[in-house]
Amino acid sequence: MPVSSNKMPKSQNSLSVFWNNSNFMLWFVIFILFCFGVYLLRSVLLPFVLGILIGYLLDPLASKFEKLKMSRTAATIWVFVLVIVLAVPLFVILFSVLNKQLSVFIEAAPMYINSFLQYIEPLLAKLQIYVPSFDFGNVKNMLGQNMSQSFQLGGKLMQGLMKNSLALINLLSLLLITPIVAFYMLRDWDIFVRKVDGLLPRKSKKSIRQIFRKIDRSLSGFIRGQLSVCFILGTYYALALRLSGLELGLLVGFIAGIISFIPYVGSITGFVLSIVLALSQFGSLTKVIEVVLIFLVGQFVEGNFLTPKLVGDKIGLHPVWVMFSLLAGGVLLGFLGLMLAVPIAAVLAILLRASVEKYKASALYLEE
What we know:
Layout: H1 10-22, H2 24-40, H3 46-66, H4 72-130, H5 136-163, H6 171-187, H7 189-198, H8 205-243, H9 249-258, H10 265-281, H11 285-311, H12 319-333, H13 335-360, H14 363-366
Helix pairs in contact: 3-4, 3-6, 4-5, 4-10, 8-9, 8-11, 8-13, 9-10, 10-11, 12-13
């Protein structure tokens, strides 16, 4: 009796093998549930995420203390002592300086706006020659009123957030919960890694470990490198602008440095603010040229030395995707989203590359 053949077509069989081997649907469902859980708990996750991030970043330092024959708990305590001794005085000094700069900014904003408008008034008059139907006088008044109110409101908002951050986040939870989470994560990091490793499916453990190692190298290198770049650039811009005579140079330099993790946004924001303030304070093209040179040097050093040496191509994300992930994270989760945006985008990029590699090695791709 002839045996009937119920074999699936080759293309369908290849597709089935690909989906079963990769467990794509399982991981996709887990990822969706994870994202949904983060969205639901976004209002309480910030101190925990910050604590985990601190523990993750300080883990190599604790491991170095362990090599000195210390227990993990003792190594964790020493790391926290060093961080407190170095970070707390720096934070107090920075807070004091920025608070003074914000006070000056709030008081001087109207004067700076008027000076800036007086400087550009001849330019507006020349433009009116070419566009006589357009009333540049109203434009000037509108700019003066709106810019003055916006600058003062922005300055007061920043100053208010520095004095009373409860309007934005629960400051008490950050101060109390974050150090505790960071301490336990740092102390138990190796235990946590071993437990996660023990839960990996045996058949795919080797490939999953390789992916985790890639994620670890990319994230640790990128985060530490980017923080170093932001700190160095912020310090350089603040000191250079202040030494050039710009009254609010420290504040502008700090702003330019702290948002330098967004490609081009930090330098462009600092550059525009510095130009406006230089024109308002001095009304001289000489000072404007000084500001331009300061930012040109900063961009040259960042592009040719700092970023290639400290960050490199750790995550392999295009700047446009970095900006998109930050914008999407900020819209969906606020400040928490800004913290998680680039790491999540980096993890997804690594997983996508691994999936593409597996797909190209599968029967679905190789079949003729």
